[in-house]
Amino acid sequence: KFKNESYFTIGLNHFVQWGGVSDYWGPMPEDFDSYLRYITGRTGNSRFSNSDQLNAAGNQYGTYYIEYELKREKYNLRFYYSHPFEDHSGMEMDNWRDNLLGVYADFKKKGLVEKVVYEFMYTKHQSGHIHEYHVMRGIDDYFNHGAYATGATYEGYALCSPLISPVRFEDGISIGLENNRLAMHHIAAKGTLYKHLEWLGMITYTNNLGTYITPYKAPRNQVSSMFSFSYCNPKFPVDITMSVAGDFGEMYEDRVGVMLKVGKRW
Fold this sequence. Notes:
Blueprint: E1 6-17, E2 21-22, E3 26-27, H1 32-40, H2 50-54, E4 59-71, E5 76-85, H3 88-91, E6 99-106, E7 115-122, E8 153-154, E9 157-158, E10 167-170, E11 173-177, E12 182-194, E13 197-210, E14 215-231, E15 239-249, E16 255-263
Antiparallel strand pairs: 1-4, 2-3, 4-5, 5-6, 6-7, 7-12, 8-9, 10-11, 12-13, 13-14, 14-15, 15-16
């Protein structure tokens, strides 16, 4: 906290897949000493796979996070930066080009535009297109892993960003994520059109390359959007929301969905 109106946040998110049984490597170490290696990001000993002995033990991934927030009487502004890492090269910023950058504004009063957010994400570099095995640098292959072949997925769904998808399957079993090299622009806003009639809009554009190992033959562009209108009046017996969403582009088949929600709050 710098002043009464300024706040600075810095943090680290760290996740590890560890233990279990690999189809290729067999049982993975699960004792307490190995657990300490996993959570501290250290290399594996002789009981680990060759790649874990050269790199960090287990399937490591996470983010560095920095945020600055400015609070004023009429508005709040928030600027944030998130940097992904999969291994030592990412933690040491070899993939410095890959980041999520965002800005959020809250105008603190009812109006046509009350809140707005813009985000840009880039994950195409991944420490470079050449993998140096002896030093484990390059082709970070975000959220995929050699020993943990399912990658960062659970029950056939991605555990990371919904934009890093789709999940690949073989014999009905997840074998990782098909697309993790992309550039994204996202903008969302909400406000009040008239008294109790509120609106919300979101639109996301992505340029997708697949992965370094299995790239798409040509980049695939995708636009996803959602718009909704809500009528919420304390004097009216129910709240009504109408939403329309659509996906258009080369990543998925074009589709449109409509939702009508009627609810009551007490």
